[in-house]
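4.2 Preliminary Data

To establish feasibility before requesting continued support, the project team ran the inverse folding procedure on a target of 187 residues. The structure was first converted into the token representation described in Section 3, and no sequence information of any kind was made available to the design step. The complete token record follows.
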């Protein structure tokens, strides 16, 4: 049974990561003509397009995307409860867990983007024709810009992705250490 839960969590998290990437790209104003973001749009559109007719965006925030992310995580939490406990219970706590899992996944995705950005900047610096580099630059530029302004200019090495990774890691660890114990009733 744990293997089935692991497979379900992995598949759901990969699909939710596509929605989170699309949400992130929309918020930061990334170029959706990038081949990687075109693929993300193609994989997420079948579910998103009908829901956008019902749920309008609020400013830069695509509420239909946020609804899908929370709904997928909520369904995953319900399925996990059914498989582990053998009962189905609908309550607010599952929705809260789904929201917290979505935030944790978004922070993990941010870490993954930072690692990819740092690795690509070391291997192929300033390659304008590499779609992955352009995509990661579009996604992370708004977060890296203030860090770059605050750090001293060091030729040859950009420390801003490492500072951003450290900040996301600290935020993620603090988030998990502070909120999850209270959610499970041990805090």
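Position-by-position output of the design step:
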């Amino acid at each position: 049974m744990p293997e089935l839960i692991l497979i379900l969590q992995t598949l759901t998290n990969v699909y939710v990561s596509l929605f989170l990437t699309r949400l992130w790209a929309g918020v930061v104003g990334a170029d959706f003509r990038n081949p990687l973001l075109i693929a993300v749009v193609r994989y997420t559109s079948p579910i998103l397009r009908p829901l956008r007719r019902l749920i309008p965006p609020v400013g830069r925030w695509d509420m239909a995307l946020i609804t899908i992310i929370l709904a997928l995580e909520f369904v995953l939490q319900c399925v996990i409860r059914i498989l582990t406990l053998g009962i189905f219970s609908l309550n607010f706590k599952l929705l809260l867990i789904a929201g917290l899992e979505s935030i944790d996944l978004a922070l993990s995705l941010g870490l993954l983007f930072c690692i990819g950005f740092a690795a690509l900047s070391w291997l192929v610096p300033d390659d304008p024709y590499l779609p992955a580099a352009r995509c990661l630059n579009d996604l992370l530029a708004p977060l890296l810009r203030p860090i770059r302004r605050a750090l001293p200019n060091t030729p040859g090495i950009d420390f801003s992705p490492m500072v951003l990774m450290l900040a996301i890691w600290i935020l993620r660890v603090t988030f998990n250490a502070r909120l999850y114990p209270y959610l499970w009733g041990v805090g």
